[in-house]
Amino acid sequence: MGDYNGIGPEVALKSFQNRKFGNHTPLLLGHESVWRFYASRLDLNFDFNVVAGALDADPNKINILNTSVKKLVSLNPGSINPDAGRCSMEAVQKGIELCMDQTCDALVTAPISKESIQKAGYNVPGHTEFLAEKTATSDYMMILASGDLRVGLITGHIPLKEVAGSLRKEQIIRQIDTLNQSLKRDFGIPKPRIAIFGLNPHAGDGGVLGMEEIDIIAPAIQASVARGINAEGPLPADGFFGSKLQEKFDGILAMYHDQGLVPFKALTFGSGVNFTAGLPIIRTSPDHGTAFGIAGRNIADERSFDTAYQLACEMADNRKRVST
Asked: Mind listing the pLDDT tens digit for each residue in 115-128?
C-alpha cells in the first residue's frame, strides 16, 4: 500500500484497472478502507475480494488482505501522519512474511514516507534496510532497472562524506557477486557483463585525484574477474552515459547513490523500477516517492508502478525456471 496519504494506492489501482493478470494473482496489502477510498475517488468500479488469508485470493479479482492491526484513524491525502507510517510498514511486514513462507512469489512496495515511519517508531532509513533486517540478509543491493539499463549501488542511503571511508575491497567483491548473481537469477541473463565505476573524478587519474581506485576498487575487480565474473573497471563515471557505454553492459555498479541514480533517472524518469538484489525474496518498487503534493488528485502517473509489478512477475517466473 505504501503511505496511504501519498500516491501509492492511487498508482497501484490505476495500474490494475486495465491489466490482464494471466498466471499472476495480485493481492493488495493494507487497510481495506484505504483501497475503497481511492477507488471511489478515482471512479474505479473494482469488485474487490476481501480475503482472510493469501491462499483465499481469487485469480480473477482484485484481492485485499487487511494488514493493519489497529483501526484507521485518519486519511488525509498530502499529509504526514504516524498512523500512515505505521500502516505502511505493517503492510510491508506482512508482505515479507508471505514471500518468506512462499505463500506469495513477489512483493511490490508502493512509496513510504521516511518521516511518517520515523514518527510511527520505525528506526530504519527505508524499505531496503527494513527488508534486509527482516530477511536476515547481510549482502544486499539497491538496483534501479529500466529495460536493459540496470544500475546497482555499492553504498546506499549514507551521507556523501562517509562514502570513501566506507569502501572495502571485500565489500566490493561481495557486491559484484550480488549483482552478478541477480542478473543471472532474477533478470535471466546467463553471462552478464558488468561495468564498475571509480569513486573519484576520472576514476582517480592514476592516483592524482585519489587512491581508492588503485588501493581498493581495482583489486576487488581483479579478484572478481579471477573468479569468472565478466567485470570491467574502474571506469570514469562522468562520460560513461554520454558515450552510451551503458548499451554494452548488462549491469552497472556505482560507488554511491547519486553517482548512479542521477544519470539513471535523467534517462528513465517515470519508467524506472527499484529492485533489492540479494534478498531471499523478490521485491520491486516504483522509483519515485510519495508525492504528497499531488496525492488524492487523480493526476499521479502509474507507469513506474506498472513496470515494477510487471518486473516482479517476470522475476518470479525467472526464479522458478532457475530452480527447476
From this structure: 999 999 998 878 88
